[in-house]
Amino acid sequence: MNDITSPAAPGRRTATGRTPGRIGSAVCAMILLVAHFVTTYLLLLAYAAEPAGPWDTETASHSGFAAGTALGVTVVAALLTALFVKAQWLRRWWFVVPTVTALAALLRLTILAPEL
Predict the structure, then answer these.
(1) 3 state SS of 105
(2) Burial label, 40 (beta-carbon count in 10 A; 0-12, 13-18, 19+)
(3) 60 Cβ partners below 8 Å, 6+ apart?
(4) Low-confidence residues in the chain, pLDDT < 50
């Protein structure tokens, strides 16, 4: 075995023998964090919107729009996560956040939708 494929070689290595840059990992993490903060804000808006009564269809519509937009941003974040993990800039546990936010958005759009 050579030094690149040796189990004792320090750090992760790519197929070309280079270690992924820490700057690339930090940039990818910052991009995903911004996307996750936007998603979280939209989900908070969606869950905070409760209709005042049976006549308040506008609030229910706004809640659905916020949850749908959050789901869209989550899909984009999940695709970026897949790209960054495939490039070995980030680890697989980054898939947890888009999974949780997508589940929260889907719940708000279906089971936990505001009732009129």
Answers:
(1) helix
(2) middle
(3) 49, 51, 113, 114, 116
(4) 6, 8-9
If one counts every other C-beta atom within 10 angstroms of the C-beta of residue 45, the result is 16
CB of 37 closer than 8 Å to CB of 98: no
Over its C-alpha atoms, the chain yields an Rg (Å, rounded) of 20
- pLDDT score recorded for residue 31: 97
Tens of pLDDT, residues 54-66: 999 999 999 999 9
Residues in Cβ contact with 79 at an 8 Å cutoff, skipping those fewer than 6 apart: none
pLDDT digits (tens, 9 = 90+) for 75-92: 999 999 999 999 999 999
